[in-house]
Every structure is written in C-alpha cells, then in structure tokens.
C-alpha cells in the first residue's frame, strides 16, 4: 500500500496535467502486477466499491477513537477519512500478535473491499487499519468510502498508461473494455511480452467521435454535411458473434434498459446513433423517419433498472443512426465520412426493423440558409445542428475541424430568486445555488428551477451578499430570500415535471443575467413558460 498511498498523496498536491501523467506513468512502470492493475481500476472507477457508509465509520470510531476528540478534529481537518486515519491508534501488543506480519498490498485491499458486506465492514476495515501506516490508512479509507477524488479522470489514467508503455491511447481505450482488472494482458502487451489483446470476438465498446462547439465560426457546406442534433442519448450498438450490446456515451452497458432495441438488431456490425423514444401523439412531427418524443420521455426509461412491459409498449425506443464503425467484421473507421454514410444507409435498410432509422441530412443552399433552418426548428427532439467534415475518418475523441455542434440559441425567462444554498468545494462559503420562480395567474410565486452557474466571480460575490442581506427565513442550510431580485435564466427546454410545485422544470438552466433593473412583479409568468413546451 505504500506506493499507492504515496501516489495518491502526490496526485492531490499536483495541479499540472503533465505532472499527473508522469506520476502515474512512473508508478505503473515501477509497481508489479497485479497491484498496478488494481490501481488503474481504482483511478478509472472501473471497480464497484460500494462505499462504506459513514455509519460504519462512526461505529468503528466509537470503538477505537475518542468520539469527542474525533468531532473536534474533524471540524479542523475537514474530512472524515483523513480524520480517522490520523486518530486511529496503534494496535496494542495483544492485538498486534493476532495480525498477519506480511505487508498489505493494494491488490489485496481492493479485492477485499469489493466483496465487503455491511456486517463484515467494521472488523475487516479495523484489521486493515491496524496493519497500515498513517498515510496508507488514509488511502484505504478513501478507497473504502468510494471516491479517490485526486483530480484524475479515467481518460487521464489511460493516457498515463499509454505513455508508460509507449502505446497509443485510443488502442488502450479499445482493449480496455474487453478486459477486467487487473488487466494482465494489457500490461504484458505494454511490456512487450504479450500480444495486443483483441476485442474481435466480444462485443466491446469503441470510444466515440465527439464534437466541438461551432461558436462564431462559419463553415463551407461543400466541405461539411449538416444533420440535426437529436436530443436523445448517444448509443453505440455492437453486434458480434450473435450477441448485441448497447453502450452509452460513457461506455456503460445499457442493454438491460433497452431490450426492445437490442433484440431488433440482428446484423453483425457497430453503429453510432442517438437513442430516442417515440412519444405519444408525436409520430410524424418530423418528416424523416417518424417523430421522436422530447428528452423528458426518454428519461422515464433511462433510469430504470428493470423495464416493465407497459414502458416497452408506451415508450418504444429506437435508434436514429448517424455513423458506422464496423460493417460486418470489417473496421470501416478509416473510410471517409461520405463512404461510411453510403455503408450506413445500406446497413440500416438491411436491418428490416423500424427500431432503426437514419439521421437525415439537412439540405441547405449555403451557411446562411442553414442558420435560418436551424432557428426555425422547434421540434422537441431537436437540439440544434451537427456539422461533419465530409472527408474525415471516424476518430475517437474531439478533434478540431471534424465534427461541430451548433446548438439552437437557448430560451430565456425572467425569474425571481426565492431560495439560496451554499455551493460545494471552492464555493462552500458562498450562497451560490439559487432556486427561482415565476408568477401564477393569481400572483403567487412558484419555483420553476434551480441554477448554480452562468455568473462571474464578481457576480457571485454580489449574489452572495444579496442573499445574506435579504434573508427572511432559514430552513436548515436553505435561506429564503426577499422576493425582489430578477434573474434572467437561460435554458435549453422546458417540460412538465412533478419536481416543482409549478409543474414545470427547465433543462440545463443557468443564470444569464442579473436584472437589477427589473421589478420583481414584471418577471415572467408560468403560462409564458408553459407555452415554450414543445
Ligand atoms: N446527428 C448527430 N450526430 C452526432 N451526434 C449527435 C447527433 N445528434 C445528436 N448528437 C449528440 O450530440 C453529441 C455531440 O456533442 P459532443 O460530441 O460534444 O458530445 P457531448 O459532450 O455528449 O455533448 P452535448 O452534451 O452537447 O450533447 C453527441 O454525443 C450525441 O449524443
């Protein structure tokens, strides 16, 4: 555990991406299997550490640490895991006798934590804490409480691994999903005494091609094809050796939530597209391939572990396909977009199922005409326009100049601030999360959303002061404020929701302006928002 604890400690105090990469790469070269593989699993979040509940930690503390001392120190240290690590007493001689003498390795620690039940947790954690030095205890408790929080993303960890062994990061990404921790074949390949692991006979995820925002740029439509940006969820459909799997944007396997789509996909290959549901009464709203319901309808299906027969009947899912990565067993990612598009059309028509259609191309004479078409599109399932370079290969990640997303201008409404809460982390001393409302017909203010972004640091200070000086009541951490401040809120769409008393909720709300000039009575009415539902 020593090297692992030292790595975490250094990562916490390192800001620079390059320095982080080097720390992890050096570690991976120096530490043997299977420890380095388990460390990668911890850094990438590839293991299911359930997270030991704080009640378990509290019970352990009561047995071994003075509770009063713990409470005082916790306020000072600010982190439960760190406080326990600091205060954990050395085992007494009798206890020390019962402990195994050998060093506890990170692989053992993680393996034991992944199988941990609630009842076993206090004894097993106490035994491990007794065997570790102080910095290592901190590392153990971070693992046990389910979050390393050392500022390393899965992608950064994989990039470090690629650098450590001089591999291509996208190749690492690709084999990664076919392997399980501690990824022994991957390290063997990296060190040159093993073949590149092949994902050919398992339906694995391939990293998605992503887009840059278009911002104020213009493109020439003879170089770029335009498509609608559908407001669903990104999906990769993979079929190999008679097995179909669906993967989300993050590479999670979501086949279980969409069995209707998976069952309908019977041809070998890998497609990229947007998962949508057909909403009631929305069929035919668009003239290409039938209508799609807005994101809200899709969300009903997204978060369910088990899908009921009723959901399958009322909200059938389908995929609007926009790219092809494998045509049968043939990898077509290196082909130009135009050629892939021809293959895609052929592939989709061969599926013979209405669960798959093609994201049609937008015909526009030139860029200005496209801009007009984009502004006029108000269908719920359309979020804007995508622009794709006609001659580009399918490459993982975000590359300048290949794919652009050009979202529709956001909607805005003038709302009145109602409640405020403190933020997290750097913002924990500021009232930075605001709930705001709009007026009903009868002059009552009802909440319609909550936002905590869109303002500058200066504005945040101003808003924080406003909250503190205009508090009328407090409920735990929440302050109710005088209903006088108008906030202009930008949002992507609005939909029916039970979350707020107003019956409405906004998608991606952010504060676009503080309207000190506008009297609260003149803020928008709920009816006005309701009319924006598509
Ligand atoms: N026709 C389309 N072609 C490509 N992507 C599309 C299309 N329609 C909708 N999308 C969605 O747009 C996203 C493109 O933006 P980006 O690559 O930046 O991903 P993102 O980070 O998920 O973006 P966002 O949150 O803006 O949708 C894709 O991930 C995909 O889900």
TrEMBL record:
| Gene Ontology molecular function terms on file | DNA ligase (ATP) activity
User: Which part of the chain is the ATP-dependent DNA ligase family profile domain?
Assistant: 310-440
Q: Which UniProt keywords apply?
A: Cell cycle, Cell division, DNA damage, DNA recombination, DNA repair, Ligase, Magnesium, Metal-binding
Q: Does the keyword Ion transport apply?
A: no
Give one Pfam family, short name only: DNA_ligase_A_C
CDD domains, alphabetized: Adenylation_DNA_ligase_Bac1 (cd07897), OBF_DNA_ligase_Arch_LigB (cd07972)
InterPro entries, A to Z: ATP-dep_DNA_ligase (IPR050191), ATP_dep_DNA_lig_pp_1105_fam (IPR026333), DNA_ligase_ATP-dep_C (IPR012309), DNA_ligase_ATP-dep_cent (IPR012310), DNA_ligase_ATP-dep_CS (IPR016059), DNA_ligase_ATP-dep_N (IPR012308)
EC number(s) from the headed UniProt entry: 6.5.1.1
Q: What is this protein called?
A: DNA ligase (ATP)
What species is this protein from? Stakelama flava
Instruction: List the taxonomic lineage.
Output: Bacteria, Pseudomonadati, Pseudomonadota, Alphaproteobacteria, Sphingomonadales
């Amino acid at each position: 555990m020593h090297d692992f604890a030292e790595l975490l400690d250094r990562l916490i105090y390192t800001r620079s991406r390059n320095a982080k990469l080097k720390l992890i790469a050096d570690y991976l070269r120096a530490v043997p299997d299977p420890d380095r593989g388990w460390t990668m699993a911890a850094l990438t979040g590839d293991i299911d550490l359930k997270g030991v509940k704080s009640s378990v930690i509290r019970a352990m503390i009561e047995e071994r640490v003075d509770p009063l001392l713990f409470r005082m120190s916790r306020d000072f240290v600010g982190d439960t895991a760190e406080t326990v690590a600091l205060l954990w007493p050395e085992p007494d001689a009798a206890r020390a006798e019962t402990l195994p003498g050998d060093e506890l390795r990170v692989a053992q620690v993680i393996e034991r934590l992944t199988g941990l039940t609630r009842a076993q947790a206090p004894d097993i954690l106490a035994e491990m804490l007794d065997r570790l030095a102080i910095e290592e205890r901190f590392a153990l408790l971070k693992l046990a409480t389910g979050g390393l929080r050392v500022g390393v993303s899965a992608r950064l960890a994989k990039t470090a691994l690629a650098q450590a062994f001089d591999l291509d990061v996208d190749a690492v990404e690709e084999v990664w999903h076919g392997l399980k921790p501690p990824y022994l074949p991957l390290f063997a390949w990296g060190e040159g005494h093993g073949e590149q692991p092949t994902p050919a006979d398992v339906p694995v995820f391939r990293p998605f091609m992503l887009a840059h925002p278009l911002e104020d740029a213009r493109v020439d439509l003879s170089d770029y094809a335009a498509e609608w940006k559908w407001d669903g969820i990104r999906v990769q459909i993979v079929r190999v050796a008679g097995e179909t799997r669906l993967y989300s944007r993050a590479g999670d396997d979501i086949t279980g939530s969409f069995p209707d789509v998976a069952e309908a996909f019977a041809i070998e290959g890998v497609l990229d597209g947007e998962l949508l549901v057909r909403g009631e009464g929305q069929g035919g709203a668009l003239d290409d391939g039938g209508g799609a319901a807005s994101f809200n309808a899709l969300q009903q299906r997204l978060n369910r572990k088990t899908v009921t027969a009723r959901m399958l009947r009322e909200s059938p899912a389908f995929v609007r396909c926009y790219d092809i990565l494998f045509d049968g067993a043939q990898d077509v990612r290196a082909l130009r977009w135009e050629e892939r598009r021809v293959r895609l059309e052929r592939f989709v028509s061969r599926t013979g199922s209405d669960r798959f259609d093609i994201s049609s191309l937008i015909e526009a004479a030139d860029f200005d005409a496209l801009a007009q078409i984009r502004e006029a599109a108000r269908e719920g399932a359309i979020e804007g326009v995508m622009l794709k370079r006609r001659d580009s290969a399918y490459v993982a990640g975000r590359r300048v100049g290949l794919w652009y997303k050009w979202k529709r201008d956001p909607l805005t409404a003038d709302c009145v601030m109602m409640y405020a809460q403190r933020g997290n982390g750097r913002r924990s001393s500021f009232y930075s999360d605001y709930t705001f409302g709009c007026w009903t017909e009868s002059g009552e203010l009802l909440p319609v959303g909550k936002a905590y972004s869109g303002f500058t640091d200066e504005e945040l200070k101003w808003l924080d002061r406003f909250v503190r000086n205009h508090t009328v009541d407090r409920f735990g951490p929440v302050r109710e404020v005088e209903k006088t401040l108008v906030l202009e809120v930008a949002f992507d769409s609005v939909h029916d929701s039970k979350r707020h008393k107003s019956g409405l909720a906004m998608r991606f709300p952010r504060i676009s302006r503080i309207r000190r000039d506008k009297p609260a009575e003149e803020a928008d009415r709920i009816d006005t928002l309701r009319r924006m539902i598509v």
